[in-house]
Write a structure and sequence with these properties.
Length: 467
Amino acid sequence: MSGHARRRLHVLKFGGTSVGTAERIAWVARRSAASARHERTIVVVSAMAGTTNLLLKSAQAAATRDRNWCEAVKEIRRRHTEAASSLLSVGEQPDFSKHLEAALEIFESLCQGFEMVGEATPRGLDRIASIGEVISAELLAATLRGRGVQAVAVDATKLIVTDNRFGDANVLPEPTLTRLRQRLLPLVRRGVLPVVTGFRGATRDGVPTTLGRGSSDYTATLIGSMLAADEVTIWTDVDGVMTADPRLVPGARVIPRLTFGEAIELAFFGAKVIHWKAIVPVMESGTPLRVRNSFRPATRGTLIVPGGAGRSAVAAVTAVPRVQLVTVSADRSLGPVELATRVLGWLDSTGVHPLLLLQSSAENSLAFALTHEEARTLPGLAQQLSSRHGRDGLVLHSSEEVGLVTAIGSHIRHPTGVGARMFSALARRRISVLAVATGPSGQGVALAVPPKSLVAAVRAIHREFRL
Ligand code: ADP
Ligand code: ASP
Ligand code: MG
């Protein structure tokens, strides 16, 4: 090999709790600077913990003439100014304050608008939602410059091009790739450390969008795979991807190695530690993805890579609370394929992502499960179904809230008895199973249980498979 071997490219993403205080931001700055010394580095940041929720909650309330947003402005200003005063020198603070005030001004004027018209539009909410990322990227970049690192905050609305599905926008790969190559790569090549805002993108016309709640992970993996990075590291607040959410199962353990297939299943079915969309680009490019704890950097975390992991059947158990299980049935004038075509066509027009779909040809019914948040975007579900399809013989049979517990593993299909063991573990605790689903690739078995039994169900299955 020549002496000019290409330097490694590493994308580091820091989540909300990892930049939640001045102390944590100082650590992130040290870690990013250390990385940039020996490899080309791109940093992606989330908003300081709690900021996104506060912004969205108060903006939505503004539409009901609730003036709490004024308090939110003060709170966001206070938290960031406090952090800046301990991270930046007196001379560096005014420049950061300018960025902070510009972001708060957007928030204020949109809230005033929502108040006036009595409505918070999805487009307006998206403009507000990722303001926290703009502020935290400016703060981290300023902190790095104060420590002698050539760093610059980069607003992802200039990089990531999306459609206009506000709140959960889809990335347009071609223009995004062009912009990443033209605007981000040259910075890195010049030895500048870019600090990119997670979570946000913009339409071709520059209207800000967001990629879905928790999607800063996706920003990082998208950039990593499009720029052929050698690795993407997600720095978070737990030791890695674990056998269950440690908040639900105190005995949960870190999984040292996972396949992309397992990871996507885990993320899709509730493991919030990584956004499911984030797995898609690295799965395509084969870029190794690491999940590590920024509070315990000495631990190794989880490495997610292609291929089989060669472990026993079940790797992890996940939970999705508050899932709406909707069953639609039809009279016999409609065949099962027609029933599915109509329901899927309608679902497609609404743009939701059902967690699962179940069909019974014998009953001539079809069920789909939506997260509580997605179900909320379909007000008057029954009305919509019957008004569009009622005369075609479709009936909304039931719509009930359930919890979804899923056992995940790449070899789940091979050993016999995984499903039986799950059922008996639940039966012993008198937990009823309301629906069952398993995908054709056989990497997960999902059971719908009564919402109040969800935590007990997760613990029972975790224990059953000795995870
Ligand atoms: P960040 O702000 O860093 O993006 P998140 O709060 O989005 O962090 O994700 C980390 C959280 O995910 C953890 O605190 C943990 O409670 C939750 N979590 C859910 N399922 C899992 C799992 N299987 N492994 C690890 N963490 C999980
Ligand atoms: N701050 C955003 C959210 O809370 C994005 C992220 O943290 O990934 O959804
Ligand atoms: Mg997250």
